[in-house]
Amino acid sequence: LRPLALSAQAWQKALDTDAEWGMAEAGIRLEHHILEPRNLSSSEAAVADFGDDPDSFWWGIATAPAHQEDGLDDAWLRFAREGNVRAWTNVPRAEERLRAWSEPETDIRLAAGLGVQVYRMGVDWGRLVPHCRLDEPDARKCRIQNVAALERYERILRMARGYGMKVMLTLFHHSFPLWGTWPSADVLAAANDRFTARDPHWHPRSSGSGTGAMWQHPNAASLFVAFGVDVVERLGHLVDFWVIFNEPVIYTSLSHCMGMWPPGPPITSMAVKVNCLTNPETGSLKAQLNMVAAHRRLYGLIRATESRRGWRMAPVGVAHLLMDTRPYSNYGEQSGKLDEATELFLKLFARYLFIDMLRDVLDFCGINYYGEEVIQNFEPATLPHEVEYSGNGRGISATGMVNVLAQFHSRYQDDDQARFVGPSGYGYVITENGIADGSDLLRPAYIIEHLAALHHARSVLGVPVRGYIHWTVTDNWEWADGYCPKFGLVAVDRDSPSLKRHPRGSYDLYRTIVGSRRVTASQRAAAWRTITDQSSTNGTHDVCRIGMSTLDRPLQMRILGGTPDPYGVVIDWRFNAAPQTARGAESACPPSHRPVRMPHQATRVTLESAGARRASTLLAAAMAFSKTTGIDPVAHGLARMATLSTAWEGFVLEQQARIDAMEAQQLQVSEYTQRLSGENGTHFMLDAMAHWVGLLDYPPAPPQPPAVVFFS
To answer: Which of 66, 568, 587, 672 could disulfide-link 175, Cβ–Cβ 3.0 to 4.6 Å?
Structure first.
């Protein structure tokens, strides 16, 4: 299935048409048959014990303003009113969200009832600074204007602490103020002038991407810091952890480069999308650089304020989204090297780049982990008969959590500049982990398996994870997916005038685990039995997103755990620890892997195949070609040998010949790629890419903050 803009009915019909899969030709019966689950060894079935010291490991729950707060006139509300959020217009009381502004104690009481030690929440920039403009030369004019709202946030923080919870406060959680989201006429005019020489199809001149709006604007960092000054001064003594940015890479990508988030509209040209991701003069990279500058200034501000006011030092970090990724070619498909090249690029771009630029000013590195993505043609593929998907369309993989933690730890544990793993660092925190599951059938096993994986990462691999925060307390507005995905441990009756809450069974499960600080074998067995009982009777659950497409209402997807996939291998997404190997190698694998596919380990620390070298070469050449022409050939699929244009073919073959010649002379690929992209080159980006595909033996050169030059 491809992520097309189809209705839920169309997707449901496609999912129900098993015959189109051609499984009968392969001798696979179309019915779902439960296979006996594998016998777990005693070590695999052991209790996941997190000890009795809450200072070494603690539990939390997370929320965010745009998900919850009523009375919030923000970019998301305008975006939804303009028809860009499909599962919003058909939902009662959509604008009220969860009434967390007028009735904050409702969900704070539910959070405290779990027994968690940390309550993660945020403050909304636009609520506190409703009037400003991006080209305002004096940032002091855009300090907090709504003092009454700041005072109310203070009361909410005190309320959470009054219930015995520490506060983790997020300053930016996917919501830029209205005054900077829809660019003004003069900003649009400047952007149009800049791209007049180009074909209009190459750049979304009328959208947020490339207009200079939001985080692309040179004033964005100063305006954000001006807002942060007053938040730190007024609320700092009540904050135990700071998260300055939530998922900066995904925000800048979906808002600036995809048009899937405010301001929109959706951007359809793949060339535009990839140029926006790889061109540092616009789009995601430019926005991230401004975010890096803002984080650095606020880190210094927080430390200076704590010292001046005599406050305790609250760790400062980021909540960084990580997905366990693998190319579609891992599924036995002959899709060429484009998927491998794309996956390698995404690993660097979405996984390490932002953290590399901030690693010396992160007291902790927050990880948001939800699942895995299979990459096909630069976007997620959907394999509904092979992968168990959550309600928001992410593949469930508890092993993936260990994979990403192991790779991060391998990359940073010996890095002297990585403050979060140094002597004064706080380590890692799982700042978000959860599943959209309105049926509450998958969630118990999801929680248990991810906690088993986390226990393995801490106790066996030595990854210093200090806390686990579940997303979230209550079903809420989930960005462009609207109210369709149900992430809450507590359901909400939106037909009820009071938005009545109904705790699910998983609420009691999480409360029990938090109270005992361990997961038992009986809990694990019972949760998985629920999965296999449902799959044996063709049970289904709601899914609200297919690939990149959101749906107006959920479709029903079969529960797969314990059933054979089209290759005859049991679908089993429980965590399983593999025998440990040398330091830096992959540390976990699934219970089994398909004989026609590569191993499940989606993110290998070293890739020894010639295909990896060629993928890196193609990507480096593509960036150089895009830089000089404004056309990104990878985005168009021109890297596929079967469809190469004459110009691109000649360009790639010429560069490949040079690489072959230099390799014969034992010259390093990094030297070539640096020359390829200009005098200053892309030493940081391309050397890091080469390093992570096993071509170099040294780490990438550290950037020089706050100015980082990626391209000449």
So the answer is: 66
Nearest to 368 by CA among 354, 383, 384, 381: 354
Look-up of token digits 């907090």 = 144
Which of the four pLDDT bands, split at 50, 70 and 90, describes residue 492? very high
CA distances from 298 to 121, 230, 316, 362, 389 (A): 18, 11, 10, 11, 38
The mean of the pLDDT values for the chain is: 76
Amino acid at 61: I
Whether 247 sits among the annotated catalytic residues: the reply is yes
CA dist list (Å): 174 to 34, 480, 482:
42, 11, 14
3-class DSSP assignment, residue 52: coil
Q: Please say whether the beta carbons of 130 and 177 come within 8 A.
A: yes
Angle at 233 between CA 229 and CA 235, to 5 degrees: 110
Q: Which of 69, 247, 372, 586 is catalytic?
A: 247
Compute the average pLDDT of residues 343-347: 70
Cα angle vertex 396, ends 388, 288, to 5°? 130
Task: Classify 594 in phi/psi space as left (phi over 0), alpha (psi -120 to 50) or beta.
Answer: beta
Q: Nearest to residue 347, comparing CAs of 705, 711, 694?
A: 694
| Gap between the Cα atoms of 429 and 431, Å rounded | 6
The tokens describing 644, both together, are 């190469």
d(CA 475, CA 82): 23
Helix, strand or coil for residue 108?
A: helix
Contact 67, 461 (CB under 8 A): no
Among 69, 432, 449, 586, the one annotated catalytic:
432
Our answer to whether residue 432 is catalytic in this structure is: yes
Helix, strand, coil abundance in the chain, percent, nearest 5: 40, 15, 45
Instruction: Spell out the residues 6+ positions from residue 554 whose beta carbon is closer than 8 angstroms to its own.
Output: 8, 391, 438, 484, 542, 543, 544
Stretch among 40-44, 108-112, 213-217, 526-530 having the lowest mean pLDDT = 40-44
How far apart, in whole angstroms, are the C-alpha atoms of residue 661 and residue 674?
A: 16
Q: How big is the CA angle at 602 (ends 434 and 400), to the nearest 5 degrees?
A: 25
Rounded Cα distance between 173 and 478, Å, is 12
Q: Which residues contact 236 (CB under 8 A, 6 or more apart)?
A: 302, 305, 306, 309, 311, 314
Question: Which tokens in the block code for residue 454?
Answer: 């986390």
- With a cut of 90, say whether residue 464 has pLDDT above it: yes
CA angle 375, 349, 397 (to 5 degrees): 45
Is the pLDDT score of 493 beyond 90? yes
Nearest Cα residue to 243 out of 56, 478, 451, 65: 65
What CA–CA distance (Å, rounded) separates 623 from 634?
A: 9
CB 44, CB 73: distance < 8 Å: no
* Cα first-last separation, the chain: 40
C-alpha dist (Å) from residue 611 to 100, 278, 335, 507, 620: 51, 22, 12, 46, 14
